[in-house]
Structures are given as structure tokens and as C-alpha cells.
Design a protein that fits this description.
Two copies of one chain form a homodimer. Chain A is of the alpha/beta class. In chain A, about 45% of the residues lie in helices and about 20% in strands. Chain A has two domains: about 240 residues, Aldehyde Dehydrogenase, Chain A, domain 1; about 150 residues, Aldehyde Dehydrogenase, Chain A, domain 2 (3-Layer(aba) Sandwich). In chain A, strands 10-9-11-8-7-12-13 form a seven-stranded parallel sheet, with helices on both faces.
């Protein structure tokens, strides 16, 4: 019988071994041709379709276990695969083959007076650790994005989707094999052991270059607090829409309804509406009516509450809350500066929009608001790699280092300088 | 009398306060115009010249103290300012005003089918912590580069140069004031207390975005191990020159002499010479003769030692050593793959060069060697922001995240997405 210490030692040895295999595979994958990588992605998509019945059977077992454990409705729905969802996963993998290869892009090129020609060329980041919860599609999405960008993927599935994720990861590895690429470029951590997450956050002795958490706020918070390697993530999306003094009312109503209610559970959904004092008289009531008609609850400041008895008085906490639900905090602000101050005080640097016909005010807002995404006359729900034209995203980052906003294949790369000479020495 | 705990609490309070002031100043500086920032730099250069006698007097005191403490020759020389050196410092600050403003650059721009226009625009990183040792010029250089790139600088001087650095920092702050910018955008940590470094490495409660260490290997190692925020640095530069089978001998000799001996103490100096077996007979002896003639000691593998009695036999440790001196490790390798394997095994991912007339071999080397800078037919001593045309650098990074190679003003920026709409909502 093993002691707890022995088990921990074994887990650590296992994880370090996995990390080393990932690093070795990354070196090969980093130099693979575009054709080879695309061949692997298309083969993986085929294998996902061919093994559909096995994957769906595994998913049924995962869900049965989860139900026994008393897992709730929305979590169960995220866990669930059916034929249509699995086909969409396979299609998404094949679609990533159609993206431009981000590796080898010449990002800049110039020649110095001494004749040295410099190129700044995109290279893979190395090994990307992805830690996710119940959604089994992340196994395929994240692995495919890493593969396309020449990075090895170390995937840690939530324990509830372990069987499903294992079969999906196997299919992705079969794709790598079919293209003559090292299958260790995609590895699913082969244990439900919770300590494996902590080991990944330590970086596995330098084997992991960056961690991407995909899941709820508590997972992201843990990863951001404990990781000893860089993290691409956003903790929350407390997104604002600011109705400026020169906002068109019809546009304001249309954008606010979309920003709040199109989908309330996504990170780009608006959580706070700021209405300029100058247009409170004309714009506030129509906005409240439209929102409340659609079933949105309103938490307003004193002025907003006084205007409409259906409004609950907002507390200080409301300005800091990501509801992810049909609830909106509404505040009257005195001008552009006050709006920006509110956003900088309470926001999460994710996505903010200004609605105005005044281009000067829009310019000031876009320049001065320190968020990853700032929009003029458009819905905050455009905060999405697909909507940006990136094809697919591994997540959205609010940090300022390396990646910011939707993280597509281009942002999963680093770069190096290639210098072409003809015998130059330095004086 | 204060207890040790009280003193630590006081230091922490002081540092957190400094961090908050830096963050507030960064918000203002981040939106300052190019003209204002340049005005501040030119004014600072003027003040540095006007206060030359005070600064040189402070420097004399610093040096006298250091000599009493028994500080050594090269350290004392780095600490030393004279009229010419101080003038060069002032000129370097003024030169940074002449660089293009990296903030606000449109890095990419595109329009989606729905009419949304996207811009990816460079923004400052925020607050940059610079930890340095004896060289007082870093106070001005680093502060000026941060100012130009819209970042607040938190500078931690080595205790030996504290008086000099304080007066230089004062001059830089006077420049900010003259331009109507917040002087807290440049702050020198006002204490020699060693624990201040550890507090900076903790990030000062989120006030520091990135740390740049400027100093010897032990400082960099400490910063890399302890920092809870990203670090731009290289631990060492174990740079290789590989003489390929198709290398021109005269070019090989000229580049190797320059790469090793132009200056032996810089991070881009070559530490290991790899000679292809195919040209060992013709190229080895002329290379050894040229190097030894110039006073370079050689540590060679068995073949190299057998070729010349002046060669010492290299140990395993030699391949991992950054000599920073007139010593070169020399090894015979069997082809391009063996050269790349050696570099990947023993190198530090800093700078490597291949000498060859075979463009296919050069291309393979530049693609496959995973270093920040890879050169074909040029000296490794070109590893320098000035030589790259960056104007000035805050350091050279070997990490893969965000910054890599020489870190100039462009790489002291992050970015955000500005999205221009006309009422778009997401379907």
C-alpha cells in the first residue's frame, strides 16, 4: 500500500515526465510545415467523426456519474455531447486547418546602413497548459489551436468530463500520428488527481510556458494566484456601455438590449450602463422600459430609482458585480470624465462601449479607457475572437503582457530576430 | 526605538505608497502627447547638464564610500562618472526624444463584413520596475525609455550609487515637471534598505507590471526566481558561432575574432566555437592561431586539444560557461544537426551565428535554432538594440513572452483593440 507522500511523489514524477515529453514534442512541432499541421488537423477531425459512437457512449457515462454526484442543470448541459455537438467540434477542428499559419510570419523587416538585413519572425511559444472544467469541446478546440500555432498542448480536463476528454484527446493524437508528427504534442493529463493542477501551475520544472484556464471565476482566480508561469485569462468581464450626451436614442436602445440580453452568460455581456446626465431626461426612461420589457432587472443609483419604481437601489457592490444574468446596474454620470473614472474604478479592463454621434468624444473614450477592447457605437457582445475575424480563440485576456483581448492563433506565438549578413563585424 | 517588525511594516507602507503614486502617474503619462513627453526628455537632459557639478560631487562621495568598503576595480569603474560620461548620459536622454513615439502606433487595421472597423493600437505597459547595480547611467537611460513609451518607472539603485542616482532621478523629475507631467512617473526608491528589492519583486500589490533587472548574473537569477510579476531579462549569454562545412575561412576568422574579442564582457560575446568536422582540417588551425595570437585562451575537446598543445582540455562545465573573458570553448561537430543539438543542449537562447556560403544551411540554422537572435555571416556582438536600429534598449530578453531580444521602446508597449461601429449589434 502506498503512503500519501509516495502517491504525491508518483504524481509529481508522472507530471514532470509528461512535461518533458511535451517539451520534446514542441521542438519537433515548432518546425513542422503548414501542410503537415493541417493534415494532422483534418485527420483528427475525421477520427472524431469516425469514433463518434464511442465518444458519445463515454460522454453518457460521464453524465451518469455526474448526475449521481448531484451535479446541476447548466453544468450538466455544458458536459453533454450529442451527435450534432460532436460534429460541430470536428468541424471546428477542420476549420482551424483553414486559418493562416501564424508561425514564420515576417512581422517586420529592415536593413541597417551596414547591410545587415533584419527579420522579426513569428515562432511558437512552446508548451501551453490548458486547465478546463466540464466542457469537453475545449479538449479539441484548445488542442487544435495549439497544434496550428506549433505549440504542444498539455490539457487538464475537469474530472466530470474525463472519459469524454480522453477519447477526444486520443482522436487528436491520432491526427498527429497520421501526419507523422509526435503525438505527445497533445497530451491529456491521465489522472483525475486534483493535485495535478497545482503541479501544472508550478510550470513542471520549466516545461510549461503559459497557462490558459478555461472555466468559472474560482478556477481563474486560483490559476492567477498560484501560477508561477504567465497566464492568459480574464477573471471577469464587468463590461460597461456609456450613453454619451450625443447618443442617438434608437441606437442606444438597440445596442444596450443586445449588449445585456443577447446572451447574459458570456464575458462580453454588459453589466453596467452609464447614462450621461445631459440625456437622462430623454434617454433613461426608454432604456429602462426596453430592458424591463425584455425581463431585465435593474439596479439603479438614486436618480435612476427615483425615475422608475421597478428599479432596485444599487449598492456599492453592484458596480463591481459581473451578474452573468438578466440584471443590469444603471448609473447617471456627469460627462465623459466621470464615465471614464467610473470604468477605471469599477471595471475589469475587458470590454467597454461608448454610444455617441460625437466623434471627438468617441476618440477620447477609445484612447483613455484602459481596457482590452473599446468600442464606438457597437455592442460589447462583439468581444469574441470569431467576431474579430481571428477564426477561433483560446480565450480572452485582460492582462497587459503578450496577449490581450481575444487570443487567437497569432497570439499563441512569440518571435525571434533573423539577421542576414555578408561577413559584418562590429566596429 | 523601532522594532525590526515595525521597520519592515514602515518599509512596506512606503513601498506600497510609492507603487500607488507610480500607478496614478502612469495613467496620466499614458495619455500624454508625444510633444509633452519629448519636452520632458529634452528638459531633463538640460537639467542633467546644468547640475553636472552637484552630480559629480555626489558621485565622488559614492566612490569614496565604496573604496572604504573595499569595492573592486571594475565595479568602481562602472560606478564612476566624470564630465564626459555625464554629458553622454544627457545626450542619450535627448536622443530618446528623437525616437518615434511607440504609443498609439496602429499595429493592425481591418474591417469585418458587418462594417465593424478594428484597430490594434499600441498602449503603454503601465509601471516598470527597474532594479540595477552600480551603473548610475541606468537611472537616466531606463527612466527616459520608460517615459518615451508612456510608462511610469520605479527605479531601485544599487546602494553604492545611491547619491548619484538620486540626483540623476531628481533631474529626470525636473524634466517631467517642466513639461507639465506628473513627476511621480519617475521615482527612485528612496532607501538603501535591501528588503525594498523583495517588495518590488512581489509587485507592490499589483502596482508593478514588469521588472527589468540590470546587473550581474546573481541579481538576474534572484529576480527571475522570486518575481511574482513578468521579468524582461537574460540570465546569461552563452553565444555560439558555428563554422559550417561551407564557411569561407577569411570570413570565419574575422567574425570569430570580433564575436569573441571585440568586447569580452558583453552578453553578445561568443563563448563557444563549433567547427564542422568537414572543415576541421583547413579551418581549425588558422582559427586557433588567430585567437591565441590575440591573447585568447582555448578550452577544446579532445580533437582540438590534439591539434594544438596550447589548448586546454575542456570539461563538460566549459560548454555551459559564460566566460565574459578572453577564453573560448572550441568543439568539432559532425554536421548541422550536431551543431544545433549542441546549442539547444548547452545554450542560453540568446544569440547564435552560422558562418556559411550555403544559403540552405543558413536557412535551416536560422529556422531551427531557438534563440532570440540568430545570425548568418555576422558577428554575435551585433546583439544590441542600437545595432538593431532600436535607438536604445532597456536590456536584452531571452524569455519567449512579450519581449525577446533587445527591448527597445516599442517592446515596452502593450496594445488594445479599438472597434468603430455604426450601431452594430451581434446576431
Amino acid at each position: 500500500m502506498h503512503s500519501v507522500t509516495q502517491d504525491n511523489d508518483n504524481l509529481q514524477m508522472l507530471m514532470v515526465k509528461i512535461g518533458r515529453r511535451a517539451r520534446a514534442a514542441a521542438r519537433v512541432l515548432g518546425n513542422a510545415s503548414t501542410e503537415q499541421k493541417n493534415q494532422a488537423l483534418l485527420a483528427a477531425a475525421d477520427v472524431l467523426r469516425q469514433r463518434a459512437s464511442d465518444i458519445l457512449a463515454a460522454n453518457a457515462l460521464d453524465r451518469a456519474d455526474a448526475e449521481i454526484k448531484g451535479v446541476k442543470g447548466s453544468f450538466l448541459d455544458r458536459l453533454k455531447l450529442d451527435a450534432a455537438r460532436l460534429d460541430a467540434i470536428a468541424k471546428a477542428v477542420a476549420d482551424i486547418a483553414a486559418l493562416n499559419d501564424p508561425v514564420g510570419r515576417v512581422l517586420a523587416e529592415w536593413t541597417q546602413p551596414n547591410g545587415l538585413r533584419f527579420e522579426r519572425v513569428a515562432t511558437p511559444l512552446g508548451v501551453i497548459g490548458v486547465i478546463f472544467e466540464s466542457r469537453p469541446n475545449v479538449t479539441a478546440d484548445a488542442a487544435a489551436l495549439c497544434l496550428k500555432s506549433g505549440n504542444a498542448a498539455l490539457l487538464r480536463s475537469g474530472s466530470e468530463s474525463f472519459r469524454t476528454s480522453s477519447l477526444i484527446a486520443d482522436a487528436m493524437r491520432a491526427g498527429l500520428r497520421a501526419a507523422g508528427l509526435p503525438e505527445d504534442a497533445i497530451q491529456l493529463v491521465p489522472t483525475r488527481e486534483r493535485d495535478a493542477v497545482g503541479l501544472m501551475l508550478s510550470g513542471l520544472e520549466g516545461a510549461i510556458d503559459v497557462i490558459v484556464p478555461r472555466g468559472g471565476k474560482s478556477l481563474v482566480a486560483r490559476v492567477q494566484n498560484e501560477a508561477r508561469v504567465p497566464v492568459f485569462a480574464h477573471l471577469e468581464g464587468i463590461c460597461h456601455v456609456y450613453i454619451h450626451a450625443k447618443a442617438d436614442l434608437a441606437m442606444a436602445v438597440s445596442i444596450v438590449l443586445n449588449a445585456k440580453l443577447r446572451r447574459t452568460g458570456v464575458c462580453g455581456s454588459a453589466e453596467t450602463l452609464l447614462i450621461d446626465k445631459a440625456v437622462a431626461k430623454t434617454h433613461l426612461q426608454p432604456l429602462l422600459d426596453a430592458l424591463i420589457d425584455k425581463g431585465c432587472a435593474i439596479r439603479g443609483d438614486a436618480t435612476v430609482q427615483a425615475a422608475d419604481p421597478r428599479v432596485t437601489l444599487a449598492t456599492e457592490e453592484d458596480w463591481r458585480t459581473e451578474y452573468l444574468d438578466a440584471i443590469l446596474a444603471v448609473k447617471i454620470v456627469d460627462g465623459l470624465d466621470a464615465a471614464i473614472d467610473h470604468i477605471e474604478t469599477y471595471g475589469s479592463h475587458h470590454t467597454e462601449a461608448i454610444i455617441t454621434e460625437d466623434n471627438g468624444a468617441a476618440e477620447a473614450f477609445l484612447t483613455r479607457v484602459d481596457s482590452a477592447i473599446v468600442l464606438h457605437n457597437a455592442s460589447t457582445q462583439f468581444a469574441d475572437g470569431g467576431e474579430f475575424g481571428f477564426g477561433a480563440e483560446i480565450g480572452i485576456a485582460t492582462g497587459r503582457m503578450h496577449a490581450r483581448g481575444p487570443v487567437g492563433v497569432d497570439q499563441l506565438t512569440s518571435f525571434k530576430y533573423r539577421v542576414h549578413g555578408s561577413g559584418q563585424t562590429r566596429p
